[in-house]
Amino acid sequence: MKIIMLVDMDYFFAACEELRHPKYKEKPLVVGADPKGGVARGVVSTCNYLARKYGIHSAMPISTAYRLKKDAVFLPVDYPYYEKMSNQVMQILKSFSTKFEQVSIDEAFIDVSGKIDGFEQAVEYARKIKGFIKNETGLPCSIGISSNRLMAKMACEAGKPDGIKMVLEEEAEKFLAPMPVGKLYGVGKKTKERLESMGYKTIGDLARANTVNLVSTFGVFGAELYRSAKGQGEDVLVENYEIKSIGRERTFESDTTDREKIIAQINSIAKEVYEELKKERVSFKTVTVKIRYYDFSEHLKSRSLGHYSDELGDIVDNAVKLFDSYSEKNEPVRKIGVRVSGFSKQGGQKSMKEFIGA
DNA sequence: TCTGGGGTCCTAGGACCC
DNA sequence: TCTGGGGTCCTAGGACCC
Question: Which nucleotides of chain C have an atom under 7 angstroms from any protein CB?
């Protein structure tokens, strides 16, 4: 049986800010959009635990956060800095594991099966990793330990903040049973509502469910839900992951129908996408434009070039065409986004797989 | 409360080829 | 004349996660 850990950095962006501004440690700290006196449109990205005491949390409108605690410290998101800190952490995790899979800027799975003899040594090993990260970077984290990805994740959530939690395979179902269904990884707002209306309030209810019933309403996802509720999950980590799409989107300060203004925004966004594309050294085949209207309705339109391209002109031209195909609506636009996908690796960047002809 | 931005995966219908 | 099935690509939308 494999020993899988999920390492998740605690309140990561805010913790990074506390690191370079130690004086903010004793204050409620909110990283996210500039509140602009409470009229801004952004949201809270992350906040420290002092800010949470006032009811502030991730994804909350920044205007609400501002109302809850006007004299909190509000800082903008400095992604490049967090990425630098993240890289340090990820290097450490790689050195402590036999397999490593980064899930996001502040989270990674590690397989440590080859590093320790069994689960008896796992908590001690996690403590070592946690201490090492703290010493080297000054950042706190939480670690979940189990025999598959799902349970490592669920254990980690239970261990937060600054904790280590191990859930053995034989304890998994019991551990999950009392939790509300919404806590299960993969169950969001919509699925939670549907499950509750079917009478499944807790994960335990779901584990005792009629699978035929779940599959008939949710399809393949229903079978997956059932497996998850029983604490079963994948134990294979994917190490060589390739990016699938690159996009940027921007919300206007106020909704607009001004074509000139929107086209200008598309141009500026396309340039950012292009820069990222060059960094990743990939070519794209498909361009997608996303529009969010004043009423929050969202639409995507995409077109395939029929061939690979790495040119800015192709992004801009197609994005503008796609946008113009919406123009008869003429409703106020809140947000506009541009995304490219359908990648092929560019010359000189052949993957090992392609190289050996696999 | 009034809602950002960066992603992933899944579904489903239609086109087209064999 | 009416009838297959598999495979892949394209497009649009939805749900979810961090």
Answer: 9-18
A197 and A225 co-located in one domain: yes
A217 CB closer than 7 A to any strand C atom: no
Domain that holds residue A346: 245-355
Q: pLDDT tens track of chain A, all 358 residues? A: 999 999 999 999 999 999 999 999 999 999 999 999 999 999 999 999 999 999 999 999 999 999 999 999 999 999 999 999 999 999 999 999 999 999 999 999 999 999 999 999 999 999 999 999 999 999 999 999 999 999 999 999 999 999 999 999 999 999 999 999 999 999 999 999 999 999 999 999 999 999 999 999 999 999 999 999 999 999 999 998 899 999 999 999 999 999 999 999 999 999 999 999 999 999 999 999 999 999 999 999 999 999 999 999 999 999 999 999 987 778 999 999 999 999 997 643 333 333 333 3
User: A170: buried, middle or exposed (CB in 10 Å: 19+, 13-18, 0-12)?
Assistant: exposed
CATH number (domain holding residue A249): 3.30.1490.100
Closest nucleotide (CA of A39 to C1')? B2
The CATH number that applies at residue A106 is: 3.30.70.270
A301 touches strand C (CB under 7 A): yes
pTM score, whole prediction: 0.93
**Of A184, A201, A229, which closes a domain?**
A229
Are A36 and A84 within one domain? no
Looking at the structure of chain A, the number of domains it has is 4
Q: CA of A173 vs C1' of C5, distance in Å? A: 42
Considering only CA atoms, which of A337, A252, A260, A261 is closest in space to residue A299?
A337
**Spatial CA neighbour of A245 closest among A297, A296, A302, A299:** A302
